[in-house]
Amino acid sequence: MDENFNQQNWGGVNNGQGVPDQGAGRPMPPPPPPPEITLRTMQSDIESVKQSGGESPTPKPFTPPELNKQPLSAMPGNNLSSDDGMIRPGQGDGVIPPSAPKKSGAKAAILIIVLILVLAAAAYVGYVYVYPMFAKPVVSLNNQVATTTVPSVENTVIPETLPTTTPESLATTTDNGSLPSQLATTSEGVATGTTEIAPITPIILPHASLLISQPDATATISLIASSTLASIKSLLVAEAANKPQMASAVKEVILTNQTGQPAFADIFSTFLPEFSSAELGSLFAEDFTTVMTYDKDGVWLGFVARLNNLTNLAVAKNTMSKIEHSANLANLYLSDPGKPALAFKDGTANGIPVRYLSFGKTGASLNYGWTNSGLFVISDSYNGMKALLTKLGIQ
Description:
Radius of gyration: 70 Å
Structural class: alpha+beta
Distance between the termini: 170 Å
Strand order of the largest sheet: 6-7-8-9-13-12-11-10
Shape: rod-shaped
C-alpha cells in the first residue's frame, strides 16, 4: 500500500506497465523513518517487572520486519486463532500467586470438642460431689417403711434363769417351790406370764386459799373417787364436831382426793344438781375455798369461787340466780335448817349487796353475793356470810 503510494507521488522505475516514469530523472526523496511501535506481551511485562523490582511494566519498542511484505494476517499477534500468545500453566515465572486462605476449620472443631469435654467433666463433678452437699434427702413414696413386729405381751417368754435384780413379784415362790400363780409354763417348760403395767401417777391440782386473812383453824378432808353427797356431808359433819377453842371462828376445810382438790364445778353441782358440772366449769376456775363458820347458833358451811378469765360477770350472775329456784337448798346445810321462807330478798353484808332466804332454824339464812373483784360467795347464815367476807378483806 505504501509502496503504491510512493510510486504514485514520486514515480518509480516503471508505471506498472514496464515503462519508465516520466519523472524518473528527478531525485527521489528519502523514505520517512519508520514509526515507533511498542508492543506489550505477558512475557515482556513479566521481564520488565523482574528488571524494575516491581514497578509498572515498560513497553518495549518493536519494529515489525517488512510490514509491506507480510500480510496482515501474518503479523504477530494478529492471528487470534493461534494460541502462541496465550498464557499457559507454568508460564509467568516469578509471579507470586495469591496465597490461599488458611483452613482453620479443623482447629475450631478441636477447640469445640475440648470445650464440650471440659463442661461435661465439670457437670459430673458438681453432680456427684457438690450437689449432694446441698440437696435435701428425697423420700421415695414407693419404699415401704420397715415395721417392727412387737410380740404380744401374753406370749413373752421369761428365761428360766432370772437375773440377780429380779423383782420380788417374780422371785416369790409358793410353798412347794413352784413359780407364782401368775406365771405358767409352756410344753417346753419355759415360764411365761403377763407383764404388769405401772399405774399412771395422777397430776395433783394445786390449791391456794382465796382468804386474805389467816383462818382461825384449818382441816383437810380426804374424799374417795366415787364420793356422793351423803358421803361428803358425813365427812363434813364429822369435821364440824372439831370446834375451835373460841366462841366464833372460821375454819378452812381443804377437800382433797387422789388428784388434789376437786374442781368447784364438781363439788357445787353435787350439792345443787340443778347446775351441771360443764355449766359451772365454763364460769369458774377449778380451785375454790371451803369454810366452816362457828357461832352460838351452830356451824355453817360456806364456799368462795373465782370467775375464770373468759367469763362475763353479767352472764355469771344470771346463771347463778338459779339458786333461788332450787328445791335442794337444804343440801347446803350440815343439819336440818327448817322450813324456808317464800322467796329470796335483797340485803347487804359488810357493805356488798346480797340475796338471802331465811329458814326456820335460828341463825339459818342462806346468803349469796358477788365481791367487787368477781368472787362468788355463799354461806348458810347471815353471821357466817359476814365472817367470811371479813376474811376476804371486806369489812
